[in-house]
Amino acid sequence: MAEGTRRLRIVKASLHNEAVTRLRDLITEGALEPGSKISEKGLCELFGISRTPLREALKVLATEGLVVLAPHRGARVASFTGKELAELFPVLGALEGLAGELACAVITDTAIDKIRALHQDMLRHYARGDRAAYFAANQAIHEAIVTAADNSVLAAMYDSSRGRIRPARLMANVTHERWDEAVREHAEMMEALEQRDGPRLRRLLQDHIRHTQQAAASSGLLAGRPGTDDLTSSVGVPAVQHQSSGQPAERRERHP
Fold this sequence. Notes:
With 256 residues, the chain is mainly alpha-helical. 68% of the residues lie in helices and 4% in strands. Helix 2 crosses helix 4, helix 5 packs across helix 8 and helix 6 packs antiparallel against helix 7.
């Protein structure tokens, strides 16, 4: 058995939770493409589990908006229409922008230090080309800014929208130039936060989200792209091995 496949197998403990995590990663990292059919048999073999925990995992991911369950037709990875993107991203941008401005008024030095450390982690992952680790650190920064705003109403609204838009942020097929640009944008956001410049951070966050929306809309991946109907063609062992080593499968360049 290939090394990459062995790392995906799930031990008996916490099968349900592990299946959710592994399947979510396959979707958000692009190994399972938007609109593609999900093969239960293939995933069970890949993870080394039965259909029961897998089906429970699919139900969880359906509530997150990552999977679509159709009676008698099985499960497919969710895809996005242009209208959905046009509705979701501006809302997220408004929420994150407001969070940034509020955070600057109340954030502690300790919280800034934490976000700065996340920023440095993100830069290291970027330098290595580790897309999955980069995205995790990137999202942790955005979430930490929302938390620093210390507004429970805003946080609840943010939580309700970020899950749906998360795959769109990651699965947008963009160029290295956009990735470089996004890193520069994060550096500016970090600077504004350290200076506690609320209006500037609000503008930078809104611009950052808008640029991500533009990249997602032009990617051709989020809606209408022909998906594969077989797990083995979209999550073969070579692709899994690339993901495990931090390299994008098929040299795709994606960025949130």
